[in-house]
Every structure is written in C-alpha cells, then in structure tokens.
Design brief:
Largest sheet of chain A: 8 strands, parallel
Structural class of chain A: alpha/beta
Number of strands of chain A: 8
Number of domains of chain A: 1
CATH topology of chain A: TIM Barrel
CATH architecture of chain A: Alpha-Beta Barrel
CATH class of chain A: Alpha Beta
Helix content of chain A: 40-55%
Strand order of the largest sheet of chain A: 6-5-4-3-2-1-8-7
Radius of gyration of chain A: 18 Å
Number of helices of chain A: 13
Oligomer: homodimer
Distance between the termini of chain A: 18 Å
CATH superfamily of chain A: Aldolase class I
C-alpha cells in the first residue's frame, strides 16, 4: 500500500486494486487504443486509485487487446506512488514485465487440474515450478519486485465443478513455499458464496498468515460479488480486485463473468466508514475515458447512474 | 412462515417474500394484465415461494397497475399455504384488503418527516394514529390478520438526506406500541450500507425483540442490496423482501430503485447452506410469465442468464 505521493497521502483501510485494464480488456473483443489506456490511467490516479493491474504479458497474437503491454507499464510507472501490476503466465512474460519496470507480478496458478491445463497448459505442479523459476529470476535481477501467485477457480470451476477446499489451501501454501511474496484466491468463474468465502479465507489466513494473502478477486457472475467482498472483509481481508464499470462481464450472456464493479465496492466501503483513499465522484468521472476508448462496449455498475446518496460523507 | 401444504412442507431457515407484484409493478408504467398476474402467482408457488405481497389497496386512478387488487388477493388466497400480503396506506385500504381475504397487511410509515408527508400526506404521528385505527378495526373484524407497520426510508431519504438512527428506532417502537404485530425497516431509496444495516437491525432487535421484526426490505439502487441482506442475516434477520428480476428498478436511470433480485438472493442463501424452500430452476422459470405479462419491460438479475453453478447443491 504505497502512499509516497501527494495523490496518495491519505491513510487507507482497504486497498482497491483496479484490474479492468487486464481482466476486463482481455475478456472483450474490442481493442482499446493505447492512448485511451493512458487517459484511463490518468483518470484512475486522479481519483485516488493506488494500484492498477495494467496488462498481461502474453503473446500479442493470442491477446491483441494487450499487445501494448510494455508501453502501458512504462506509462503507468511514471505516476508517482502508483503500484503497477502485470500478469505473467510464465518466465518469458515475467522477464518482459520486469524489463518494462512493473512493480509487481501476478502469476495465475489454479486450484483445479482441469482449469490449470486449459488456462496455462500446465499441471498444477508444473505451474508451481514456473513460480519457482520466476522467483529465482526476479531475485537475481529485480529483488524489489513483488510476486503474487494467485489461485484461480478457488471457489468452483466451470470444468471440474466443486473444487475441494483442501486443494485450494494446499495451492496457497505451495505458492508461498515456491517463494511468492503473497498468494491469493480468485473466484474466476463467479461461483463463490459468502459462507464459502469466509471459510476459505479464514483457513488461508490460518495456513500462511494474513500478510501473505493478496487481494480477494471476486466476480459478479451471479450477483454475489459485493456480498463476497463483504464476507472477505469480515474475516480480515483488506485488498480487493475490482474492475471499473464491471468491464468484461455481460449479465445477459450465459457464462458472463464480470469482475466486481470498482465504483460500487468503493462506495460500499466509504459509506461503511472504511477508507479507500478514492474520490468517488472522480472515480465515476474516470469511466468516461474508458467508455471513449471502447465505443459500444457494455458498461455496468449501479453507483454511476444513481449517484452518491444525499448527505453522503466519506469515511474519516 | 406457513407450511401447511405439500408445496411448502420443507423446513426453511429464511423466508423470502416476493414483493415484485406490488413494489415492482407500482414503479413501472406498464400495466400487467390480471390473467398474467395469476400465471405469475402460479409459477412462484410452484417454485416454492411461500409469501407474496400481491398488491396495494390504493385508489385505482392513482395506481392503475394495481386496480385489480381485490381480484388478485382472492386468487392468491386460494393457494394452500401461501401467505398473502397487501399493502394498505390507510383504514379504507385495510377494510378493502381484509374484505378480499388478505392474510397480512403492510402499512408504510416513515422515519423521515419529509418522506412521510410526500408519500402518505401525513406526519409520522398521524400515520401512527392510522396504524392504531387499522389495528382496532382488524381486531374487531379479523383478529387473525397480521399487521406489519414498516418504517420506510430507514437508511436515508432522498428528500431529507441522512435520517437519524434514533428516529428510526423510535418509529419501530411506536409501530409496535400502536399494535402492529411486527415492524420492519425499509431501504426504500437504496441508500443503506452493510455497517449501517448491522447497526440499525441490532438496535431494533434490542428495542422490540427479534419476533417483532419483519423482513429486511432492501433496494439495489447502488449495487449493495445483496450485501445489505447478508449484513441483516448476520445480525439475526431471517425475512427478506425481494422482487423477481429486480422489477421496478432501472440501473441506467438516475434514482433507480429496484428491489433486491429474488433469484440472486435465493441462490446466495441456498449456496451458503441456508434453506429457502425455493427450487431455483423453477424460480428462474417463473420469470417467464412475468416477462410475458410485461412485454418490453427491462428485467434484471444475474443468476438467470448465468444459470446455477456446475455441481450446485441445495442447502440441506
């Protein structure tokens, strides 16, 4: 939770990490122009968003939406105090992300064998080996870079169905044992419920310690995204991955899997008296450069059309 | 929580009360044909919904959507075991609702002076006097009928802004003192947050006792409806007002005020292991008669397009 700059000088209670630029953009067909990404980053920083997952380092032919990965990282790291994250599926991606200057790497591992093979074409054990290789590399060339190894489909898998909780906790432990600074659990497919979220995060905290757990990464596929974040908060989690305007999700399509909406979650916390460091009106305004860069793309979120409540006061 | 019939013979942990036929229909311009309302009631009962707020007894020229109030009540009370609620703003409405055979009356009072005058053209004290008159009447003619006096805008008011919590608790106490069987608190304008929900329901339970508190009535105006229900559940509330397909809300219009989506909330509870008595697939199917009766009307909810999760099991 960096707060070196004047933009980020207020103390915060929770860290909202914007992942729309990666998780959102990779899920839609439209390609946002690089110049629009820059304007979007400007607006997010202006609103007080302290951490952005800006891209994924994957082959451009596989994901043309993120072909400008290095350029976007270089632009973002010039923002004083902003924490800049890149997703990397392998050592090659990590090398490129570190060369571009990213502050933090996120490596996707999986709690489900079926999903692991489908997502990264590796078994869970092979993926843990990849984490070890990346940790070794970054320790040699950029020891200040943080590594999060997240556990995907931790709350259910569209291929495997139910994922045993022991498997999830085992993966979290293995990620930390492989040298990741933090691990995390992601509801990649929007199958989590609040009771399960409380159970799994409580177990994960007991297993590796709260300081070793990254953000709760919840999707809103079945409408429970915000309730699941509340459940995670209730058991001690203080970091949340969210996506502006729920980018990437489509509530009218089967399998829709949009992230929790940044604006709505930030509103919930501020209304509850939990400090996010975010100016909600500026955050709503930050939707515009995103919308301008993705003409015709569906946008979601309830706070933006409804506006702040009459008499609203920020957390103090 | 009636369960006399074979449809409703399973034990439940929470009572989900469908209010779309009243709160939803009164909020939209379209008028649902009476025959469609009957089919919708059939489908809701078939899905295991045990309580429906079917109408409001108000002058037909003020609310033509609900002009068939008596007819709808008569149809609904023929369903064995179904609990049938009517909203009544005054004694005249209560007389008509009781004559039609309704099981339960809901009377809207208000925590905010400004809202009370705007909504029912009475001060809070005058509205409490109306509650006393209705209680006296029903005790004389239909003592078995239950009376809930709900407190509207308990979590904030679009006219007054912040509503002092002492005012809300005072109104809950006054409603019970006026002879209502239960009182309740409604987030009429979608301004609540989970911390406030926990605080106010905890105070209300302490003030009048859990057996004197009706359903949590939450709106999803700013995306927090389900999280607010979870918060109410966490402090002991076991009844929830919801609206199929979020009827009546429009996330793309300022001031949108749709209820919590029945399907999504029922899914959350069942996934958590909390029994609702509802068959979720039949509940999703029950959207169709509603949609057929309101051609072109916007429908919401995330569960219906996404479907149940792979490997889903109901609460046992």
């Amino acid at each position: 939770m960096k707060s070196q700059s004047s933009t980020f000088d207020k103390p915060i209670d929770v860290l909202i990490s914007e992942v729309g630029m990666r998780d959102g953009l990779q899920s839609i067909a439209s390609v946002m122009p690089t110049a629009s990404k820059f304007k979007w980053i400007d607006a997010l920083v202006e609103a007080g968003v302290r951490e952005i997952e800006v891209t994924s380092f994957v082959p451009a032919h596989l994901m043309p939406q993120l072909a400008d990965a290095a350029e976007v990282v270089k632009y973002a790291i010039a923002k004083p105090g902003l924490s800049v994250i890149s997703l990397v599926p392998n050592l090659k991606g990590a090398q490129a992300a570190i060369a571009a200057g990213t502050h933090k790497l996120t490596i996707p591992t999986s709690a489900s064998v079926a999903h692991s093979l489908a997502n990264v074409r590796k078994t869970r054990e092979q993926m843990l080996e990849e984490v070890r290789r990346i940790v070794e590399y970054k320790n040699a060339v950029a020891p200040h870079v943080e590594i999060e190894a997240g556990v995907s489909v931790a709350f259910g898998c569209t291929l495997q169905g139910v994922v045993p909780e022991d498997d999830v906790i085992w993966m979290v432990e293995q990620c930390i044992a492989a040298g990741a600074n933090v691990s995390g659990m992601a509801d990649t497919t929007g199958m989590a419920n609040p009771a399960q979220v409380k159970r799994l995060f409580t177990r994960a905290i007991a297993a590796v310690g709260i300081e070793r757990l990254g953000a709760a990464h919840m999707h809103n596929t079945r409408g429970l995204g915000i309730a699941n974040c509340l459940a995670a908060y209730d058991v001690g989690i203080r970091g949340f991955d969210t996506s502006m305007a729920g980018l990437g999700g489509c509530p009218h399509a089967p399998g829709a899997s949009g992230n929790v909406v940044t604006e709505d979650l930030a509103f919930m916390f501020e209304a509850m008296g939990v400090r996010t460091g975010i100016d909600l009106e500026k955050l709503i305004a930050a939707r515009q450069p995103m919308i301008d860069g993705l003409p015709g793309e569906a946008v979601y979120g309830m706070l933006a059309p409804a506006g702040l409540t009459k008499g609203f006061t920020y957390a103090k």
